[in-house]
Amino acid sequence: MTATAVKLGTLYGVGVGPGDPELITVKAYRMLQECPVIAYPKKRMGAKSYALEIVELYVDVAEKEMLGLVFPMTRDQATLDREWNKTVELCWQQLMAGKDIAFVTEGDPNLYSTFIHMARLMQEKHPEAPVRSVPGISSVLGAAARLDLPLADGDEQVAIVPANGDKEAMRQALQSHDAIVFIKVAKVLDLMIELLEELGLTDKASVVTKVTSPYELIWRDVRELKGRELEYLTLMVVRK
């Protein structure tokens, strides 16, 4: 590197918590202040993500370079590859200019987060790019707090499971752990309620949508939710 070469910026995955703006760490706050570029999920329909709403409370976005990134909700691999490559290159251009990026994410950047794929692709395509993460409070822990429910104590086991239509796999998860947090549960809610009824666990389950945020909803009797359609950001906690 020559004396005039620009030092690469660092890509930071910054967890800003599950929705409550006060559930942000001091370090995450500092990164938002110090990074000249803030990358955030940009929704096509114009609605703001939680992450962006939280950022706007703590920084003057007029003083930052705001990098809105679109993450397509599709299973078409060609579309995914094209859009993800475009997103990585947008960030790479900023890093090459010597600018640090705070890539903000709801919850924690290393737990079922968009940042995981971003970091992996950046390191594959540009291995010289420095990539770091700043942990945040996940929706799992936010739900435990809002439900006043300890997830595990002593030798108890807790599992975090993406809910899906494999009923036997979901049954196994329920039978094998003392507490289970099913994320992305909205799409298979009726199946999960049916399974809870079969196992006699309906009174041990609660459902939370958009936990800790101003839009939070809590159901402690999951049977009320039969046939209902809930938001994507919905999880179920089962504590035996």
Automatic annotation (TrEMBL):
One of the entry's Gene Ontology molecular-function terms is: cobalt-factor II C20-methyltransferase activity
Q: Tell me which EC number(s) this protein carries.
A: 2.1.1.151
Q: Supply the name of the protein.
A: Cobalt-precorrin-2 C(20)-methyltransferase
- NCBIfam families in alphabetical order: cobI_cbiL
The superkingdom listed in its UniProt entry is Bacteria
Pathway recorded for this protein: Cofactor biosynthesis; adenosylcobalamin biosynthesis
User: What keywords does the record list, in alphabetical order?
Assistant: Cobalamin biosynthesis, Methyltransferase, Transferase
Family, according to the entry, reads as follows: Belongs to the precorrin methyltransferase family.
Q: What class of enzyme is it?
A: transferase
Q: Does the keyword Methyltransferase apply?
A: yes
Q: Which organism is it from?
A: Paenibacillus allorhizosphaerae
Q: Name one GO biological process term.
A: methylation
